[in-house]
Structure formats: structure tokens, C-alpha cells
Amino acid sequence: MRILLVDDEVELTEPLSRVLQREGYNVKIAHDGETGYKLAVDGEFDLLILDWMMPGLSGLEMCRKLREHHLTTPVLFLTAKDTLDDRVEGLDAGADDYLVKPFELRELLARVRALLRRPPIREEVPTTILQYRDLTLDSANQIAKRGGDILPERTIELSEKESQILSYLMQYPDQLLTHQQIYDTVWGTSAQPSSNALAAQMRLLRRKVEHNGETTLIHTVYGKGYRFGSPSESV
Prior knowledge:
The protein has helices spanning about 10-20, 35-40, 60-70, 85-90, 105-115, 160-170, 180-185, 195-210; strands at about 1-5, 25-30, 45-50, 75-80, 95-100, 130, 135-140, 145, 155, 175-180, 220, 225-230. By secondary structure, the protein is of the alpha/beta class. The longest helix is centred in the N-terminal third of the chain and has 13 residues, at about 10-20.
């Protein structure tokens, strides 16, 4: 397994690289975003570990550019930023996971293993279409459409994780789905994300599927989970 580690802190990258190599990974290091971006595009890596804040091209900007060019290699952010808005911004840029500095090496290695266990994206996936009222989801192509009746129809591009979450919600309209049910279904029982990952993903998803004037479809049931469709007993 080949890992690209991009961080401008030499005092972090050198010992971290040695730890990863002892675990059997082939590690390449870059100390700035521009170099890291070129390596990520030209090389065939199984995982990218990116520092958020770097001079020149930041890890956030690097991740955005890679996703714009349809590079699907998993991305793990290492950063001191820890607010929900920061997590949302990182996920929105295309990151798969997020680890706050300072971190425990055991947790880092666990997240690396979890990301590397994910199966590669298949080229041919049967199309699955789900519809609820004015919202249609093509989960295979990660595209949703909303409107077409009172409001003009619009196309919504979704990340892989957003599409998976929305698909799960739409399959169980008006039912309470707990946080753990969503974690187990979308992330799997062996690759649980950090505690705020689901809240951040939901915020991103709501921004995309619920514009001004459109009926709210995703409702939070505080302390329990989420309900799609009916606003009954939801906020």
C-alpha cells in the first residue's frame, strides 16, 4: 500500500513516516502542497494524508483540485482545526476523514487501516433511482434532482458519502434512523468515523437538497438521529 504524506512540519513527517513504514506501508513525503499535488496526480497512491495549513497550496485547496480532476484516492486530513464548520469545510472539499492534532498514533493507524480497507470504486454500477415527492436520487451517478412542479427543477451533485446517506434516508421515509444505524450502514461497523462526521455530512447534505422555498425533508431528532420526510416530532 502506497501512502503520500504531505505536511510542512518536518518534525512530524519524519517520525510519522517511520511509524507507517514499520507498519508495512510504502511512504512518500512532500513538504508543500504544490509538490504534493504533482505527486498525487502523477503517482498511484492508495491513501493521501494531508496537513490542512501549509504555505502556498494548502491541504484544503489541494484536496479540492484533486477531486475536481476526479482523483478518488482517500484523503485523511491532519489539522489543529476542530470546529464543526471546519469539519464541514474539509468534508465538502472531498476529504474522507479528519484527525485533530495532537493525535494518538494508535488512532491514526486505525483510521489509515479503515480507509485502506474500503473497496475501490467500481466502474460499472447498476443504476438505482429513488424518488420522494419532488426529490429524485440517482445513487449510482451521485446525482439528485429537485423541483419541477412549482419550483424549477435543479440538478444536485453529491459526494459519494452524501449519496450513500441520502439513499439510506430515502429508503425509510418518515422513520427515525438512529445515529448508530446510519454509521453502521454508511460507514460499516469496522470503520466508524469521528463523532462529528455525521453531523458535518448532514449539514452539507441539507445545504444541497434544501434551498430557499423548498420543503425541509431531513429532520433532526435530537439525541437520537434523523428522520426523512415527515416533520412530525422533528426539529
